[in-house]
Amino acid sequence: MPTLDFKGKPIIYAHHLTVPARTLEPDATKSQPPRRRGSFPPKGQTPSLDDNLIIHGDNLHALKALLPRYAGRVNCIYIDPPYNTGNEGWVYNDNVNGPLMQEWLKNKSPVDGEDLERHDKWLCMMWPRLHLLRELLAEDGVMFTSIDDNEQHHLRMMMDEVFGEQNFVTNVVWQKKYAPANDAKYFSDNHDFVLCYAKNRGNGKDNEIPTWKRRLLPRTEKQDKLYKYDDHDGKGPWRTDNLTVKSYSPEYDYPIINPKTRKSYNPSQGTCWRTSKEHMQVWLKENRVFFGHDGNGAPQLKRYLREVQQGMVPLTIWTYDEVGHTDGARKTLKEIFSDQHLPFDNPKALGLLQRTLAIAGDKDAVILDSFAGSGTTAHAVLSLNKQDGGTRKFILIECEDYADGVTAERVRRVINGVPTAKDEALKAGLGGSFTYCTLGDEVSPEKMFTGENLPDYETLARYLMYTATGQAPDKIRKARGKDGCFHETDDRLFYLIYEPNLYFLRSPDSALNGDRAERIAKQAKSKQKTAVVFATHKFMGQKELTGMGITFCQLPYSMYGTGS
Prior knowledge:
Elements: H1 9-12, H2 15-18, E1 21-26, E2 53-56, H3 59-70, E3 74-79, H4 99-108, H5 118-136, E4 137-147, H6 152-163, E5 168-175, E6 191-198, H7 221-224, E7 238-241, E8 244-245, E9 256-257, E10 264-265, E11 272-273, H8 277-285, E12 289-290, E13 300-304, E14 317-318, H9 320-323, H10 326-336, H11 350-360, E15 366-369, H12 376-388, E16 393-398, H13 404-416, H14 424-428, E17 435-443, H15 457-469, E18 485-488, E19 492-496, H16 502-506, E20 511-512, H17 514-526, E21 530-535, E22 537-538, H18 542-547, E23 550-554, H19 557-561
Parallel strand pairs: 2-16, 2-17, 3-4, 3-15, 5-14, 15-16, 19-21, 20-22, 21-23
Antiparallel strand pairs: 1-17, 4-6, 5-6, 7-13, 8-11, 9-10, 12-13, 18-19
């Protein structure tokens, strides 16, 4: 497979592995409670990280922070990264020479920004983010990426390398404008692309790994109106369909006799009937062959609405009248923020995201957007949930300063209602809630056990589970008793002996001793599983523990020995 080479690639190649994990810190003052359900959060509690999330911070660090909670659990990713047009006048700066990109290249990445050309910088920015996004994606998940001609060819080659070219699904063309730009130098740029890659597209054979399955689009009222006839025989509405096909077969070339008039009909030259002579007789008896309203017309097939596929196969060209355009998206944003000026020149159309999500996953899908911008993805999620009663969850990441004032504020308004909106659902409010987060301290063996910022039990348990297995558990149990079983898989029990204070961590209570090991071994044996125990230290050898079906994983010794 051809690969894409660019300056900085050897240095950035494994950068996603070295990015430190960070905690997610909920901010109750900026979070949005469910409507009409009392105070939020309940007194003495913080907003839940299991809710919809809006994260303000560098999206590379935010993606890494999500791994212990969402690795392998995101069903659909949609991103609208900077297009790298060189336009510095847009607040969502897509010029790699802009301040935010320069800061990342100089201070947060291992490459030298001064040595890179424009496209190299963009590729260095995208490479580690694509790797983390793929790790967050479920095995049967799918990723959609909006892009234009500036980087589309580079992006596709890069995604071929990260996702595997066999997992390329399609390249959708979105007609983003409805009128030509008469001042265009060469051609009026009226479209963008949406690249689609599956985590695992499958090979057409039986595969133990779950594969992404494309969903059908809902049928339209216009399509259903084509079925305008009804014989009132209980079979429902129908329309006429051609009985002949152009792929000629001698066995299907025979005369059809009208049962009432006895008139004979043969297929036109070079064509044949679409079914065998025997099956045609069945259709005639079932009154499925239509000879015109006067009974003297050429035979046609009755196609019943109840028999057609209850949905549409999506096309690769999405026109503005189907999914919206940028001008309409600007008007939608202006309607939501009628009280202020917003400098978003090119927000994504709500219909574009609604169609993407409808194709991507089920009604309970987890959807991630790591370049959230004006928050269209969350708006689309809430809108679809309102329409079909779904429980889709969104996770937005935005690095810019408007993460609260625009991104989160838009979501607050569509949840609570926009009084001036023309759409009645938006005017009344779509409902929902979210937890607003910032990035907290690093979670690493070198820094987490200094005694200054000890992580809480769930944060540490999720971090350890992810680093040990590469998977993010859907739930972490509260530690049961003194032994601390926090998660269970098909073949293992996971234990963490931990409290977030140095007094406990220095005490014998934090160790795996004989009594505790026997209890854990008994629990594991009763479920025919083995056990993994995380603790600061142990009072018995691993050989003895192995015989009991226990694997011991020592938390860094610095935690036990730190402090005076």
